[in-house]
Exodeoxyribonuclease 7 small subunit (Gemmata obscuriglobus), 105 residues
Amino acid sequence: MPEPPAAPVPFELALDELDGILRELEDGTTTLEDALSRYERGVSLLRQCYGQLRDAEQKVKLLAGLNEEGGADLRPFDHVASIETAKAAVRKPAPPPARDPGITE
């Protein structure tokens, strides 16, 4: 039975772990096999971080209204119904004021 995929490590924790792996590899005190294992873990974390950054960038583009080229995403928005409603309200004559039976003109 295959193992279920591991839950992604939060971005900040992945960066901290990557920093620790880098320090271990730079120290040069690990064995070759351990260094390869740590390097493999580092590559996995790095790919995960890039994926999370790409997802975050896409969300920012959506929120900021930018297209793929970084320009403003100028799409017409559906406002016809609200304008037509507003025009109809303006055109609609106001009801005549109630007359006071005691006032004559």
